[in-house]
TrEMBL record:
The keyword NAD applies. The keyword ATP-binding does not apply. SUPFAM superfamilies: GroES-like (SSF50129), NAD(P)-binding Rossmann-fold domains (SSF51735). This is Alcohol dehydrogenase. It comes from Actinomadura harenae. The chain crosses the membrane at residues 170-190, 196-213. One of its GO terms (cellular component) is cytosol. It comes from the Bacteria.
Length: 373
């Protein structure tokens, strides 16, 4: 069969992307799913900073690549032994956890070794690539998902079944923004009732973390961002206070939290902001980072504070979550009204608007944009 997909042909092209067009919408051949794989009709796919980091070249991936890693869709064909059936609605997670390696069996599927190796190589978990141009060139897969495509083939290990009445554009958010943000708040930071919390960066992931912190009973939540309308949205979603990002942010957070927050989450992917988030954390507190800085960016911290103040600095990938456990959990929280993630959806796009969408994301003018098919 064939599918239209947005293929990243070159990283590092200059913005505006609507003019330089690093993503080309092309008609590709798509091979059928093999054993343990699924052919999925994509219903909606979100635009994320992790995609942008590949486009701008700060995260090197093999090219060309059929981009996109946050999606929901419907199974069209199920390979032998997949455990799914045609008609199943699924959310796609961006780490295809094998379920058998040491990290998977210890309850940390986000760190799956074979999954990470496949993602780095731009292949599916079972090996190989399923997309092809007419000339036989095979674009790589993006994190096992390649969501910016009408159809995609994925490992069944990437899929989590959800109810058919969950709108696709909402379901897609659970594949990255919600798993990463809410997971960081509930699992990595372990926010409990009464905690004071600060969130640096108010995109889809940061606002999902804010919503989860509120659901966990945080006593005070301070939201930090350079963009006015994102701070306004954070206040509407339950933040106790909002602070403009910049050189004065640390002191403002410390003032609003009585000397620093107990749990601070950085979602920006900027090393200098992570250092601010650490500085805004009180003694005995925990700083969690989920952003992906440029690999060459150094982080400088007062080393003594880790011991003398019993501080914790923790990385969080995929929110330290377990997709097959947590997608249903977070969907349940959404349905009950305690995790209103529909508020994160700021723009709906067509596939042909994908480059312009990344201009909007890079400018900070969007929370979560979703391509609908």
């Amino acid at each position: 069969m064939t599918t239209r997909a947005a293929v990243l042909v070159e990283s590092g092209r200059p913005a505006p992307y609507a003019e330089s067009r690093p993503l080309e919408v092309a008609e590709l051949r798509l091979d059928p799913p093999g054993p343990g794989e699924l052919l999925v009709r994509v219903g909606a796919a979100g635009l994320c900073h992790s995609d942008l980091s590949v486009i701008n070249g700060s995260r090197r991936r093999p090219l060309p690549m059929a981009l996109g890693h946050e999606a929901a869709g419907e199974v069209v064909e199920a390979g032998e032994g997949s455990g799914f059936a045609p008609g199943d609605r699924v959310v796609l997670a961006f780490v295809p956890a094998c379920g058998e390696c040491e990290r998977c069996v210890s309850g940390r599927p986000a760190l799956c070794g074979p999954g990470a190796a496949a993602n780095g190589a731009g292949t599916l978990l079972g090996g190989g690539r399923r997309f092809a141009h007419a000339d036989g060139t095979r674009p790589h897969h993006h994190l096992g998902v390649s969501a910016f495509s009408e159809y995609t083939v994925v490992s069944a290990k990437s899929a989590v079944r959800v109810d058919a009445d969950l709108p696709m554009e909402i379901a897609a958010l659970f594949g990255c923004a919600v798993l990463t943000g809410a997971g960081a708040a509930l699992y990595s930071a372990n926010i409990v009732p009464g905690d004071t919390v600060a969130v640096f960066g108010l995109g889809g992931v940061g606002l999902a973390a804010l919503l989860a912190a509120r659901a966990a009973g945080a006593a005070r939540i301070v939201a930090v961002d350079v963009v006015d309308h994102k701070r306004d949205l954070a206040l509407r979603l339950g933040a106790s206070g909002a602070v403009a990002g910049g050189p004065d942010a640390v002191e403002a957070v410390r003032e609003l939290t009585g000397g620093g927050a107990e749990k601070v989450i950085d979602t920006t992917g900027v090393a200098a902001v992570l250092a601010q988030a650490y500085a805004a954390t009180r003694a005995g507190g925990t700083t969690v980072t989920v952003g992906l800085p440029d690999p060459s960016a150094p982080l400088t911290l007062p080393a003594l504070s880790l011991v003398a103040e019993e501080r914790t600095l923790r990385g969080s990938y995929l929110g330290s979550s377990v997709p097959r456990r947590d997608v249903p959990r977070f969907v349940g929280m959404y349905r009950s009204g305690v995790l209103p993630v529909d508020a994160l959806l700021s723009h709906r796009l067509t596939l042909s608007e994908v480059n312009a969408g990344f201009d909007r994301l890079a400018a900070g003018d969007a929370v979560r944009q979703v391509i609908t098919f």
